[in-house]
Amino acid sequence: MLKAPGAYKAADKKMASGLNIYKGLAEATGTDTFVFDWDANFVIRFLLSLNK
Fold first, then answer.
1. CA trace torsion 40, 13, 3, 5 (10° rounding)
2. Which end of the chain is more exposed for a tag (fewer CB within 10 A), N or C?
3. DSSP helix, strand, coil percent of the chain (3-state; round to 5)
4. Interior angle at CA 14, CA 43 and CA 37, nearest 5
5. Could you tell me if residue 30 is left (phi over 0), alpha (psi between -120 and 50 degrees) or otherwise beta?
6. CA separation for the pair 43, 36 (Å, rounded)
7. Which residues of the chain are under the pLDDT cut of 50?
8. DSSP label at residue 37
9. What per-residue string of b and e applies to 9-32 under the rule 16 or more CB within 10 Å gives b?
10. Are the C-beta atoms of 14 and 8 separated by less than 8 Å?
11. pTM of the complete model
């Protein structure tokens, strides 16, 4: 389970971008519990691959 978006500090621009997405999801859905599964997270990996 992930902590609230504000509990994380971005180490670099890539992480800051991910935190912005996470913060937006949390605010838009009103959900306070998120579970992250790296293997199932193909959408973000796909979007990051478009920058190459």
1. -110
2. C
3. 60, 0, 40
4. 40
5. left
6. 13
7. none
8. -
9. eeeeeeeeeebeebeeebeeeeee
10. no
11. 0.66
Q: How far apart are CA 43 and CA 49, in angstroms?
A: 10
Joined together, the tokens standing for residue 52 give 């190459």
Compute the residue count for the chain: 52
- CA dist., res. 27 & res. 32, Å (int): 9
What is the Cα–Cα distance from 39 to 29, expressed in whole angstroms? 23
d(CA 30, CA 10): 22
Give the position of tokens 């935190």. 19
Distance between first and last Cα of the chain: 30
What's the longest Cα–Cα distance across the chain?
A: 33
